[in-house]
Amino acid sequence: MDAHELANAERQAVEIAWAGGRMLLARFHQPLEVKWKGKNAGDDPVTDADHQVESYIREELARRFPTHALVGEEGSGEGSNPAPCTWVVDPLDGTTNFLNGLPAFACSIGLLEHGRPVAGAVFIPWPTTEGGMVVHARAGGGAWVNGRRLELTGETPLPGRLVVLARGPFRLRESFRRRPGERRSVGSTAYELAVTALGVYRYVMFSAPKVWDVAAGVLLVSEAGGRVMTLRARRGPWAPLGAFTREDAAKASSAPMPGQEELRKWASPVLAGTPNAVDLAVQGITPYHPMIPGAVRALRRAFGRQRT
Nearest CA to 228 among 196, 188, 271, 268? Predict the structure, then answer.
């Protein structure tokens, strides 16, 4: 996409994110129809507000960008063919917060070109006269909120600074364990990435987010001057996250276009924040893979025989 097309995509994403955010605010603290996508009640909720906002976004994107593909968390775009440009949408990230009345949620809209984030807008509730704001960016154009350009500083100290550390198979090195930062997670990946771009968090780390959780937010952080890393292999090392494809980010423009299946299956660790904080975290956080279940069972059988 050329500069004019990118600027237009960003502008349209901002308009749609604002409209989706206002729809969510209108439903906040109102009765909701709730279903559960997980195996058990209470596991991975989805509400009629999720579906309402995704339907609106789907219709608007189809009208404004008829040649683009769409991947929506609640199913929009399933079965469609790949396209060079794909919108990735999470209409309500932080559904559990939303249905419990906690104002920490987001409406996230990101545009991928050959799997690489190139435009994005994230609505978050915020104490403004409008009840929220939209943080937005385009590739090479910086990250913005309310006409103000965002710039993340290179500040190094972490003690007392807010961070998000993922649960999962990771180990903190001893030197880093003593000063990882003040942990605060609000339960919405898109929200936390947006406020990272604002400078609220020094860094955030997620163990296996889905593409709709991060497609817009990682662009906000990188365009604000931050750094975004991922693990391309089970045992690392950390590497820059450039594209949501199986190919290396540098080859994304020549790689096959990622389609519905590939994008919906994408789930990899993400680490994002100010450059210095991310550098410290990369050195201090390593993947941890305990003994495989088969080996554990074999050891248990062996010790069991010795005890009898």
Answer: 271
CA distances from 96 to 13, 28, 36 (A): 25, 12, 11
Q: pTM (2 decimals)?
A: 0.90
Strand (E) or helix (H) holding 257: none
Q: Are 107 and 123 in contact (CB under 8 A)?
A: yes
Give the DSSP H or E segment for 43: none
Residue 192 host element (H or E): helix 189-197
- Dihedrals φ, ψ of 112, to 5°? -110, 140
196-248, pLDDT tens digit by residue? 999 999 999 999 999 999 999 999 999 999 999 999 776 678 999 999 986 54
3-class DSSP assignment, residue 188: coil
Report, at the CATH architecture level, how domain 162-287 is classified.
Answer: 3-Layer(aba) Sandwich (3.40)
From CA 233, how far away is CA 159, in angstroms rounded?
30
CB count, 10 Å around CB of 79? 8
Instruction: Quote the CA–CA distance of 201 and 206 in Å, as a whole number.
Output: 13
- Place domain 3-145 in its CATH homologous superfamily: Fructose-1,6-Bisphosphatase, subunit A, domain 1 (3.30.540.10)
CA contacts within 13 A on the Cβ side of 224: 34
Cβ(75)–Cβ(46) below 8 Å: no
Give the total residue count for the chain.
308
Residue 82 one-letter amino acid: P
pLDDT tens digits for range 77-100? 999 999 999 999 999 999 999 999
β-pairing, 85-93 vs 69-72, is parallel
